[in-house]
Amino acid sequence: MLVQEREGLLAKVTFLNMIIAFAVAFEHRLRFEPYIQYSDLYDLASHMGTLTKEADTPTMIEKKDGRWRRILNALDIAPENPRAHMKQAGRPLGNLPLQILSYMYPFVSDASMEGRGGGGVGRVEKSILDNLRALDNVLVTADKISNTPLPVACTIAISQITWIFLIVLPFQLVHLLR
């Protein structure tokens, strides 16, 4: 009995760690950081067999930066494309948050089958599965938003508003200098 309680507690802690790993992996995905070697993510997701773990070492094509690129990077005026790591990867990187969710679904169904002796899914398990579907929906929606480009009209309007703001800003600060 003691061994079963210990295994049940270990399963609950593992599932909670998977939820935390999903949140951290989702954060890194939104930042276009595709690998798993980050300090906050590695301990949470290194035990899972994922495509991201197989592509653990960044295998990007090394290229020399030109003089202008070094100057712009030093001044932080025109940073490089954050998706460059994903485009230049030598191996498939996968979608780590989605892979973590794919580990979580069977985990819940296995736990419900063990706890009920094969008697089906109860209210708690149904609630957990509904919340996992909500996390999946958030992941898909965020990917859709981050991969959809802005229309040309919006891009032009944003750039014009930015230029107007930059031109008018000194006149707004004149009264502070007096």
Major beta-sheet overview: none
What is the number of domains?
1
Distance between the termini: 79 Å
Shape: elongated
Classify the secondary structure makeup into a structural class. Answer: mainly alpha
Strand content: under 5%
What average pLDDT do the residues reach?
80
Low-confidence stretches: none
Q: How many whole angstroms does the radius of gyration measure? A: 23 Å
Number of E-state strands = 0
Q: Return the string of H and E elements.
A: HHHHHHHH
Number of helices: 8
Give helix % range.
over 70%
Describe what you observe in this structure.
70% of the residues lie in helices and 0% in strands. It is mainly α. It has one domain. Helix 6 packs antiparallel against helix 7. It is elongated and about 80 Å long. The model has no long low-confidence stretch (mean pLDDT 80). It is found in: Cell membrane. Its main location: membrane. It is a multi-pass membrane protein. Keywords: Cell membrane, Ion transport, Membrane, Transmembrane, Transmembrane helix, Transport.
